[in-house]
Amino acid sequence: MKESPKIVILGAGMSAVACAESLLDFFQVELYEKSKGFGGRLCSKKYHETRFHLGAQFCTCTDPDFKKLLNKNNAKKFNGSMYNFFQKEEIETHQYFVHPDGMQALVRESSESLDIKAREKCIRVDAQNKIAYFESGLEVSYDILISSLPFPQAQELLEFDESLNINFDPCIAVGLMINSAIKTKYSAYQSVNQDISWAASSKFYNATIDETWVLQFSPETSRAMFDVSENQLADFASNQLNELFDSDIIIEDSHVFKWKYAQCNRLNSEKKFIALENDIFAIGDWNISPRVESAFLSGKALAKFLVSNKK
Ligand SMILES: Cc1cc2nc3c(=O)[nH]c(=O)nc-3n(C[C@H](O)[C@H](O)[C@H](O)COP(=O)(O)OP(=O)(O)OC[C@H]3O[C@@H](n4cnc5c(N)ncnc54)[C@H](O)[C@@H]3O)c2cc1C
Q1: Domains of the chain (ranges plus CATH)?
Q2: Whose CA is nearest to atom 3 of ligand 1?
Q3: Would you give the DSSP letter of residue 202?
């Protein structure tokens, strides 16, 4: 019997997992992820019995297939309320979803059926001979290669000459462990001021863990403070939190994460993936918009295309 073609996917975030899951019955599929696990920008840091969400905080859900994936992975409804300072109004959250174990758990069940090789960073692709090279020295041949990397990284690796104008903003996220719970009207605040785009307590995704807070800096402030030390960033974030609630909270511990490529500047593009020469494809949220659901839709759209064009 003829062997199924081999698909190598670079990355194991939402777009890669969504794509791989739909390809499994038709192809051999292997994922190579540079970090130690799955999830990508769905990322949270466990700290004793509590945790910080450092990447995506929640996701919207409008697509029925995405809803199925959320159900399969035990996502929960956004638990709490949200206020937007810029719009000066409470935000409707009924289409928002979270995971009580941290956002990367949105793909945990799905990842279990996949062949994910962790700590494998792809450093070069020989498109003519169809070989991917990894930092570890590993060389992997493929029939089809799919990149799920953020656009600037994908472009650098695959050297594709696309005249797309896709930029990514950085984001500094600071997780704060506090000495006691803060009494606030809302559990999450958007567009707090020109420095802080998001400030939220862990209560909106898990009311049973010790309360933590995450502050995400605006793109401008993230850019301006990107090289500042972690201690200074944690101090800045804790001052912002105390100013916001006119409080005197003591920070017991903190964790700083600097995303160089956090969110893209694209909004609702029609094209859900890019097809390059020599059976190379690029998926990822940036094909559509900077949302978890868009990453899912990009991965799914490419899988559908590959399955329907399978020779
Ligand atoms: C701070 C922040 C806040 C956000 N807030 C929200 C939100 O509230 N709601 C929302 O819907 N979305 C939010 N987003 C966006 C959301 O996280 C993304 O849209 C989505 O997770 C992107 O998934 P992806 O698969 O396209 O890319 P990624 O998750 O970035 O996956 C790419 C993967 O490729 C891996 N990789 C990179 N280079 C290599 C290499 N050379 N070799 C192998 N692997 C490699 C990476 O480690 C990563 O795992 C936020 C993002 C950030 C950073």
Answers
A1: 1-42+102-164+268-311 (3.50.50.60), 78-96+168-264 (3.90.660.10)
A2: 56
A3: G
